[in-house]
Design goal:
By secondary structure, this protein is an alpha/beta fold. It folds into 2 domains: 50 residues, no CATH class; 232 residues, Rossmann fold, CATH 3.40.50.300. The protein is 36% helix and 29% strand. It contains 11 helices and 18 strands. The chain has an 8-stranded mixed beta sheet with strand order 9-8-10-11-7-14-15-16, sandwiched between helices. Strands 2-1-3-4 form a 4-stranded antiparallel beta sheet. The protein is globular and about 50 Å long. The termini are far apart. 35% of the residues are buried.
Length: 304
């Protein structure tokens, strides 16, 4: 479906043709870019685009880009073994996906990260706040308080640094991400968590007849998250569910939901699984890390 580009005057809430806006470029009206097809649209404010591409050259030396990557801050997971697997922790300006069955440790990792992010950089943190979007009701403030206490932090201060919302449908998820932009700027947000990203899409779009619409809207949400992560140098962590492989003789027994849209949009994919009482994390896909795995555990201090 061909996309059309328009601009929205935020005060009047009406669409303008692109040419009309260019003719009135001398005005100081605040416009937002809208990528729209039929009924659904997602905004990318002009200042976000400017922030990403301000003073950016068309090309740069790969050696300079490499320096940016190796010096970019990372957020510790709270587990030395997981940090070693991820070469220092969760990467900023990227989307990291954790997927697995229930009780594999996805939410525990997210809650531990929401504590670790607020620590000083020399302690493995990012010295910033957290946006926590909960789609399955798995966030527990008492658990976060316990993790903070065991790690020597004040639970009240840590909870005050987490901006939480519980959402139940795709429209609310899209709205929460849009509303997060002001928080990111005002509250020095350095981590955005969505646990889980796929849940509302699977619940709302049932059957093959709605698959195309589901994937289109999922793709827009992921694109928005990627834009925010790069514009503000923050980390985005999403969790994902699994489904059974219809052909278990080819590939893994379980596979991440979301199809190719999810696979292409996320930067790093980590599969979490259990063998008895032991938990394991396996890098399935990453542009910078080889496939490898490690054991981790969950205790009073969170992920260990």
């Amino acid at each position: 479906m061909k996309e059309r580009l328009a601009l929205l005057d935020e005060d009047a809430s009406v669409f303008y043709n692109f040419e009309d806006v260019l003719l009135n470029a001398s005005t100081n009206q605040d416009y937002s870019l809208i990528f729209s097809d039929n009924n659904y649209s997602i905004q990318i404010r002009t200042y976000e685009i400017q922030k990403i591409f301000q003073n950016k050259k068309y090309f740069e030396r790969a050696s300079d880009y490499y320096k940016k990557l190796v010096t970019a801050p990372r957020c510790s997971t709270g587990s030395k073994r997981l940090d070693n697997l991820l070469r220092g922790g969760i990467e900023t300006s990227a989307i990291t996906e954790f997927y697995g069955e229930y009780s594999s440790g996805k939410s525990q990792i997210c809650m531990t990260l929401s504590v670790m992010c607020q620590r000083k950089k020399e302690e493995g943190g990012l010295e910033g706040g957290v946006i926590y979007i909960d789609t399955e009701g798995t966030f527990r403030p008492d658990r976060v308080s316990e993790i903070a206490s065991f790690r020597g932090l004040d639970p009240r201060t840590v909870l005050d640094g987490i901006f939480y919302t519980r959402i139940a449908d795709v429209e609310s998820l899209e709205g929460a991400i849009e509303s997060s932009l002001k928080l990111v700027e005002d509250q020095k947000i350095k981590l955005v968590v969505i646990d889980s990203l796929i849940a509302p899409f699977r619940a709302e779009f049932l059957g093959r007849e709605s698959l195309q619409e589901r994937q289109q809207r999922l793709n827009r949400v992921l694109y928005k998250l990627k834009t925010i992560s790069e514009a503000y140098d923050l980390a985005v962590v999403v969790t994902n569910q699994v489904s059974s492989n219809p052909n278990p003789f080819v590939g893994e027994r379980l596979r991440a939901t979301g199809g190719n849209v999810m696979a292409h949009a996320t930067t790093h994919r980590i599969f979490l699984y259990r063998q008895g009482q032991k938990r394991f994390a396996k890098i399935v896909d990453s542009p910078s890390m080889p496939q490898s795995e490690t054991e981790f555990s969950v205790g009073p201090s969170g992920v260990e």
